[in-house]
C-alpha cells in the first residue's frame, strides 16, 4: 500500500488513501497537474481498502453500476468494488483483490461516482458535456454518448478554442458565477489539462446541420436534458433536493441554447459573439 495522494481539482480538494503502489503511481502520472501538497480540508476524503472476493472474468463494464441513495449517504456498486460516501465527504471505497489492470479503472469510476454525489453539496455538478474555452469564457455542449461532443470539441480546437474535456466537465455553481473547472476526468481528446476556472457563457444542446445557428431552448426541455446528463446521480433528482437545486441553477444561471453545427468550426464565431 502507499501513502496519501492529495488532489486539487481547481479548488475541489480530494484526498485518497490506501491505494496500491501501481494505482497511486498511475494517478500521480496521469493527474500530475492536479496533485498538491496543500493540507486543505478535503471535500472528498477517500479511504481505499481491499477484500477477498470473486473477480468477474468477463469484459470490463463500468456502466453497469448500481446505486442506492439515502437522506445523507449514497452507495455505488460495480463489478470489482463499491464506495459508500456520506454527507461530510468521507468515503469508504472497497476493491476486490486480484483485479489486475482493472483495479485502476474501477477505482477511478467509483471515485467519480462518489464525487458526483458529493458535488451538489456545494452547488456543483459533474456533467456529461464537452467543454471549450473561447475568449476566456467556457461553453458546454451537453449530451449523451454519440451526440457529437468529441467532434465539436475537436472542431473548436481547430478554430483556436481551448478544450477542457470532450466528455465530462466539472461545473461549480456555488459562487456568484457558474464556472467550468479544470479537472483530469476522462476524455478521448488529447489535450493539456490543468487547473483553472472559467465563467460559463452558455450551456448548449447539439443539433446537426450544415449551417451554424443557435436558438433558445425551452426551459423545461433544458432542465430535462440537464437532469438526464448528470452521471451517477440523475436517478436521485426526485429524492435529493440538492440535485434538483443544481439542475435549476444550471438551467437559469446562463443562457441555454440549441446549437446547430456541421463538420467545420464555423460555430465558433457564434460563440465569440456571446456577451461576456
Mean pLDDT: 92
Number of continuous helical runs? 6
Specify the structural class: alpha+beta
Using the 3D structure, state the CATH architecture of the largest domain.
Alpha-Beta Complex
- Number of domains in the coordinates? 2
Unreliably modeled segments:
none
Q: Identify the strand order in the major beta sheet.
A: 1-2-3-7-6-5-4
Dominant shape? globular
The SSE string, one letter per element, is: EEHEEEEEHEEHEEEEEHHEH
Taking the sheet with the most strands, its summary is: 7 strands, mixed
Rg, please? 19 Å
Helix content: 10-25%
Distance between the termini: 48 Å
CATH class category name of the largest domain: Alpha Beta
Strand content: 25-35%
Number of strands: 15
Remind me, CATH topology of the largest domain? Answer: Phosphoenolpyruvate Carboxykinase, domain 3
How would you briefly describe this protein structure?
The protein has 276 residues and is an alpha+beta fold.
Helices and strands in order, then pairings?
Layout: E1 5-9, E2 12-17, H1 21-30, E3 44-51, E4 66-69, E5 73-78, E6 81-86, E7 90-96, H2 102-118, E8 124-134, E9 137-142, H3 149-158, E10 162-165, E11 168-172, E12 179-181, E13 197-208, E14 213-216, H4 219-228, H5 241-253, E15 256-261, H6 267-272
Helix pairs in contact: 4-5
Index terms:
276 residues; alpha+beta; Phosphoenolpyruvate Carboxykinase, domain 3; seven-stranded mixed sheet; five-stranded mixed β-barrel; 15 strands; globular
